[in-house]
Specification:
Layout: H1 2-23, H2 35-52, E1 55-60, E2 67-72, E3 80-86, E4 106-108, E5 117-119, H3 127-142, E6 149-155, H4 163-171, E7 180-183, E8 195-200, E9 202-211, E10 217-218, H5 229-238, H6 261-269, H7 274-280, H8 294-299, E11 303-311, E12 321-322, E13 325-334, H9 340-353, E14 360-365, E15 372-373, H10 379-392, E16 397-400, H11 407-415, E17 419-421, E18 437-439, H12 440-460
Parallel strand pairs: 3-6, 3-7, 7-17, 8-16
Antiparallel strand pairs: 1-2, 2-6, 4-5, 5-18, 8-15, 9-13, 9-14, 10-12, 11-13
Helix pairs in contact: 1-3, 1-12, 2-3, 3-12, 4-11, 10-12
The structure holds ligand BES and manganese (II) ion (2 copies).
One manganese (II) ion is lined by residues 90, 125, 159, 431-432.
């Protein structure tokens, strides 16, 4: 397999420059102001697939942003790997916290990335990661080593819920027929500790509106005599958890499976330093559900968090006012057997039940998704594990993530195929945050590991 490292060494500068060009396109799916950029980005992805050697490339229209499809079918009797990724990115705000422009990619050295990392929105999530697959495919094509069929499906709406991709998958089951799904949109523990994600959380996301008086009021003339919706919303949010940080919504845990002692021991075996975790976040202590470790809290326990809360006067100086309305956005991360729809209903019923008569409340659900678990004994997982063992010199650790990629559960439901979450990012790469970056080491390691996956998988199948 010497050809892999040779090809990467000869082409790595170009690989990096091509990714930098892709990162210059502000493909923010959440903000309509960028719609032209998102469409341009789809075009750039299609071109990249074409020059890497894919056939039947199509920019598939949807009710939202397009899905870029491409394939290389070398022999119908060989297995087919479907590669999924997303070319859309999160909004870049708050802009003032970036040390360089979010869409002006630059390579900078950091303590964790002594070989340099590319700083830009989408560098790790997910442009840098899906592009590894395009380059690994190019490598296999140019070195005549592609061992099986490949289908690419790169979408533009992951960061806004993948609703149109769900429609596309249901309508294109034949076209998407495959034996394994390979996704690089997650992370590893550290650059000297490879891991493979074996679990993703589901998501229920709601927006809350609490209304008090029919207009904003003088906080002296009316204060203490009418409900202040901001105060009430805070009190209601406080009732979401008990003193042990256990979620207080009735029936919330009904379907949650308690892990066996053995499974918990497995989780505890994954390398993790609580001191380093706290230090990286400048925290003197962590916080979470009583009776569970940090890795359990993020990996296997459902959680509830306020993502945003607003209302009243937040400008310069002091304005004495009781707002008419208060708002919050809440996410609940779900674990196996909890369904998004069910949990959204339980939340909504509870929220309404604890609302005092002095206000009216509204709960609006946003997009959500179901949790996902990947077994470690299927051929595709074993192929991925062996590939990482070859390129890192260490067997990867299976890890359950607190993140969500809702389409993965839908792939399983609609296509009947499991996904392998072979990600290469680091938690410190600041995805969704200012100064997102992706290590050059990680990028090239991904390009190196993917062809090994293909070789192992084709052989095992
Ligand atoms: N790639 C992330 C999810 C992720 C990151 C999973 C790291 C595991 C490790 C994905 O782009 C994402 O941000 N998902 C959203 C959900 C989506 C519905 C907006 C999330 O997890 O918040
Ligand atoms: Mn992603
Ligand atoms: Mn994301």
């Amino acid at each position: 397999m010497e050809h892999i490292n040779n090809y990467i060494n000869e082409n790595k500068d170009r690989f990096i420059n091509e990714l930098i060009d892709l990162l210059k396109i502000p493909s923010i799916s959440a903000d309509p102001a960028y719609s032209e950029d998102v469409l341009n980005c789809a075009g750039a992805v299609a071109k990249a697939m074409e020059s890497a050697g894919a056939d039947n490339i199509e920019i598939c229209k949807t009710a939202g942003y397009p899905i870029v499809y491409g394939e290389k079918i070398i022999d119908a009797s060989l297995p087919t790997v479907l590669v999924y990724g997303h070319y859309d990115v999160q909004p870049a705000d708050p802009l003032e916290l970036w040390t360089s422009g979010p869409f002006e990619p630059v390579v900078k050295k950091t303590e964790i990335h002594p070989e340099g990392a590319i700083f830009a929105r989408g560098a790790c999530d997910d442009k840098g990661q899906f592009y590894m697959h395009v380059k690994a495919f190019e490598l296999m094509m140019k070195t005549d080593t592609l061992p099986c069929n490949v289908k690419f499906m790169i979408e533009g709406e992951e960061e806004v819920g993948s609703e149109n991709l769900g429609v596309f998958v249901k309508a294109n089951k034949k076209r998407l027929k495959c034996d394994a799904i390979l996704i690089s949109d997650t992370g590893i523990i550290a650059n000297d500790t490879p891991s493979i994600t074996t679990g993703l959380k589901g998501l229920s996301y709601v927006e809350l509106e609490v209304t008090g008086p029919n207009r904003d009021l003088h906080s002296g003339l009316y204060g203490g005599a009418v409900a202040n919706p901001i105060n009430i919303l805070c009190e209601m949010i406080a009732k979401m958890k008990d003193e042990n940080n256990h979620i207080a919504i009735p029936k919330f845990y009904d379907n949650v499976v308690e892990l066996s002692a053995e499974e918990r021991a497995d989780i505890a075996r994954a390398p993790f330093s609580l001191d380093k975790y706290k230090a990286a976040l400048d925290l003197s202590d962590v916080h979470g559900e009583e009776g569970y470790t940090t890795m359990e809290r993020t990996g296997i326990r459902p959680t509830l968090d306020v993502n945003g809360i607003w209302g009243g006067y937040t400008g310069e100086g002091a304005k004495t006012v009781i707002a008419s309305k208060a708002y919050a956005k809440i996410s609940m991360r779900l674990v196996p057997n909890q369904s998004d729809e069910e949990i959204t209903t339980l939340f909504s019923d509870y929220f309404k039940s604890i609302a005092p008569k002095s206000v009216s409340v509204k709960v609006s659900p946003h997009h959500g998704g179901e949790p996902y678990v990947s077994p470690t004994d299927i051929p595709a997982y074993v192929a991925a594990s062996k590939a990482m063992e070859t390129t890192y010199g260490k067997k990867p650790v299976p890890v359950k993530s607190g993140g969500s990629i809702p389409i993965v559960a839908l792939f399983e439901a609609e296509l009947g195929v499991k996904s392998i979450l072979l990600g290469f990012g680091l938690d410190s790469d600041a995805i969704h945050s200012p100064n997102e970056h992706y290590g050059i080491f990680n990028y090239l390691k991904g390009i190196e590991t993917i062809p090994h996956f293909f070789a192992n998988y084709a052989k095992a199948h």
